[in-house]
Design a protein that fits this description.
mainly alpha
């Protein structure tokens, strides 16, 4: 007869930490894409059209060891930081003015409706005419690509704050900047971070497109210009290595930088799951 009291307990199977599951799912997606890349490259068997992943990784490693690819990436990121920072500063000023007055809110709504649909790359010919070939033109178009996305999301996040939350802060004696910093800003933070992520994506692809299509930063020699040069020389494996560097930088910023910011702010505060 079975005795539950004397039965040997089953060995507990440790559950996988939930924090690792999203990372493993992303790793699985990347593995599938890598296998598809390698398989298609071997099937087409034409390095001038589509090199294999192994050839691309070999070129990536070679260019990294020589220091050329890191130097090109650093040049692009330096320009990006200037444009992104300028866009954030202008967006902050616009949002503060919009929050402080009804006129500012209408002005921001009108400006975003006018300029947000306008592709930043379409302004590059004018920027080249106004500022010449080089970094100032790129900073101008990057600022445009960042400004409206960040301002629109931040202002929408502030407008979505429940009036009850505002009254709670006022009942606690918070006014002006204290109310903004302690109540409004944390409540709107998920929308603000979403705007920062969208602005980053817009800025990064605008920069690479400007370097690639117009060669606007040929003096600084960023990643886009690197791809353009290698394409002219028919070094297609190095073209793909440059594109891989663009993708990897995007993955690091999205998957590490913004994820850490979200984990230490909105998720820690219970504003986002």
């Amino acid at each position: 007869m079975f005795d539950a009291a004397t039965a040997a307990p089953r060995a507990a199977v440790p559950a996988m930490p939930r924090d690792w599951r999203p990372a493993l799912r992303r790793l699985g997606v990347l593995l599938v894409l890598a296998l598809a890349w390698e398989g298609y490259g071997r099937w087409i068997a034409n390095d001038l059209v589509f090199p294999t992943l192994t050839d691309t990784l070999a070129a990536f490693w070679r260019l990294t060891m020589t220091g050329e690819l890191p130097a090109r990436a650093a040049a692009s990121l330096e320009v990006l930081a200037l444009g992104y920072g300028a866009g954030l500063l202008l967006a902050t000023l616009l949002v503060l003015f919009a929050v402080a007055s009804a006129f500012g809110s209408e002005m921001l709504a009108t400006l975003t409706a006018m300029f947000n649909p306008l592709p930043a790359i379409a302004l590059l010919p004018l920027a080249l005419l106004w500022f010449g070939l080089g970094t100032p033109s790129l900073v101008f178009v990057i600022t445009h690509s960042v400004l409206w996305a960040v301002a629109l999301n931040a202002h929408a996040g502030v407008q979505a704050i429940p009036p009850t939350l505002r009254r709670v802060g006022e009942n606690l004696g918070l006014r002006g900047w204290q109310l903004t910093l302690r109540i409004l800003a944390p409540a709107a933070l998920p929308a603000i971070i979403a705007g920062l992520k969208i602005g980053w994506a817009f800025a990064w692809r605008t920069l690479i497109a400007a370097e690639l299509v117009f060669g606007a930063s040929s003096r600084s020699g960023g990643l886009g210009w690197f791809v353009f040069e290698r394409r002219n020389n028919l070094q297609i494996d190095e073209v793909f290595a440059g594109l891989l560097a663009v993708i990897l930088i995007g993955l690091v910023v999205e998957g590490v930088v913004f994820r850490v910011v979200e984990a230490r702010t909105v998720r820690r505060w219970g504003l986002q799951r």
